[in-house]
Specification:
Blueprint lengths: L7 H8 L6 H10 L3 H11 L1 H12 L6 E4 L6 H10 L3 E5 L2 E9 L10 H4 L3 E4 L6 H6 L6 E4 L6 H9 L5 E5 L3 H14 L4 E4 L6 H5 L4 E7 L20 H21 E11 L8 H8 L5 E3 L8 E2 L3 E2 L2 E2 L8 E3 L1 H4 L4 E8 L1
Length: 342
């Protein structure tokens, strides 16, 4: 493995779209997007499906999800208690201890019940956040790192999967955001964790190489998959800002692969549908490593990664990565890739 050196100018050269079509300009004006984003959708999906994607952001039916804390309370009993409060709940087929809210009463809110305050469940704005820890699939008594953990939803799920054994290092650069994570962990009764506040890119200096069995990298990103929750994302990220995000994501994934043990697993995930932040990042890091395999996902409900975008041919292995599309899967847009150091 070698140190990664990726310059902003090189990234900009790779990801800048050279031509914006009339169709992209029309849709960008109509729906209020940065034109380069719409042109990207057209090139990824074609006109008809790109329009479905844009319209799904406009008309998205938000579904709050619940992670049952089965270490503290029986999930069937929890469902019955919430149903008695007039919550209508539906099972999530790929997670047997997870639910989403079909309809909710005006009171109480899902985050103010006694059951919530007792730590019987965690609330997510969308089901997609539940998936990366399932792909990570950490075993009991393992040593696991969540590199960018706050506000704590994925870290709480990891704690459940580990059955509150071993050790989870929950890192986040923001002390303010870490307060929320810590409050959830205390509320849910977890004990096998340490919360730290470090720049995740510098974690090798703190821990050394090959120290963790599992590493989750939920990378800070453009959040382009969550436009339904924050419409400002339609124009917030210029191509120059995107290049800076990509540079940081490459450095973070490089760090994650240094931190994981041989035979260990890294899951790289973003709440972005941009290939620049996803397949491009994974490809750039794979170029610098031997002995890294991209795993086939254990769960096969979603779409595959792209192997080509613009004039870039990605590493063929990124086709094994997972893409979640709002218009196909009725969830927030996500990218998830499982990497094993062999």
């Amino acid at each position: 493995m070698h140190e990664i050196s990726v310059g902003i100018n090189n990234i900009l050269k790779d990801i800048t779209i050279d031509f914006i079509s009339e169709e992209a300009m029309y849709l960008a004006r109509k729906y209020g997007y940065a034109p380069y984003m719409v042109e990207r959708y057209l090139r990824m999906l074609g006109y008809e499906e790109a329009l479905k994607l844009i319209e799904s952001f406009e008309n998205f039916r938000k579904r709050i999800a619940i992670l049952c804390n089965y270490l503290r309370y029986d999930c069937d009993k929890l469902s019955k208690k919430l149903e008695n409060m007039n919550f209508v709940l539906k099972n999530i087929q790929w997670c047997n201890y997870c639910l989403y809210i079909e309809t909710a009463p005006s009171s109480p809110s899902i985050g103010s019940t006694h059951e919530y305050l007792k730590g019987y469940y965690y609330v997510y704005r969308d089901q997609a956040s539940l998936i990366p820890p399932l792909i990570l699939n950490p075993e009991k008594n393992s040593i696991t790192l969540d590199m960018c953990a706050a506000p704590g939803g994925k870290a709480a799920h990891i704690m459940l999967l580990m059955e509150d054994t071993g050790l989870l290092i929950a890192n986040d650069i923001s002390r303010r955001r870490s307060i929320s994570l810590l409050s959830h962990f205390i509320r849910m009764g977890f004990k096998s964790y340490v919360v730290i506040n470090e720049n995740a890119i510098e974690l090798v200096k703190k821990f050394g190489k090959e120290k963790f069995d599992y590493v989750l990298l939920d990378a800070p990103c453009s959040a382009e998959g969550g436009i339904m929750f924050d419409p400002s994302r339609k124009t917030k990220t210029s191509i120059e800002v995107l290049a800076k995000l990509v540079e940081r994501e490459i450095k973070l994934l490089h760090t994650a692969l240094q931190l994981v043990k041989r035979g260990g697993r890294v899951v790289y995930t973003t709440c972005s549908i941009a290939p620049e932040e996803n397949e491009y990042v994974v490809t750039k890091v794979l170029e610098h490593y031997d002995g890294i395999e991209v795993e086939e996902p254990r769960l096969n409900y979603w779409s595959n990664g792209f192997t080509k975008f613009l004039n870039i041919t990605f590493d063929y292995r990124v086709s094994k990565c997972i893409r979640i599309w709002p218009h196909r899967h009725f969830m927030e847009g996500y990218f998830i890739c499982s990497l094993v150091k062999t």
